[in-house]
Description:
Number of strands: 15
Helix content: 25-40%
Shape: globular
Amino acid sequence: MHIERLDFENSPYLGVYGFATDRVAVIREGLGEKKLEVLREVLKVPLIETSVMKSRIVGIFVAGNSNALIVPWYIWDAELDFINAQLREYGIDMEVVPFQSRLTAFGNLILANDKGALVSKDFTREEARKIEDILGVPVERGVIADYTAVGSVGVVTNKGGLVHPEATDEELEWLSDLFKVDVYVGTANMGVPFVGSCMIANSHGVVVGHLTTGPEIVKIEEALGFLG
């Protein structure tokens, strides 16, 4: 099972509520067991159910790759302790870094896999260098299709990438070189271009919003390396 449609309390914007790497997924609290089981089956990684800053929109706040997770500096101590305890319980040696910045929506502003990362140009160059050190991959500052919220308009794994349909050919080539995977354009949830907000993906599989059409699913499967 590489791809599944799902909703979180009738919302098709799954990426707002969760984030996945090839080692772990961080998911909002309060989902039913059936939906958690779908997430486990598709993503094939342990799930950490938590809030961030007492909010369930954890996909907006958390970013990272297999090396580390970046969370807002203002995360509650109890939340940070819980995430770290869960990682230890699962035997996952991964750093969780509260990152000091005027920005907090890291899930919207950072797009990363295990080969590279694109961060919003709203980060300073010094912040980008710090993110590079944390994630252990080359980092570039920039936009996709003129959007600074690069994590909202894109999704990338170690197998492929999908970005806003208005991304240029030059941007696709640049992103492919940065992430070392093929990157395509596409939509989800019946034409929504903010694909990062519509799905949770890693190299094992992807869960997409329940409004996503059949043709969109085919394109997502192709882009994220699940066809053939």
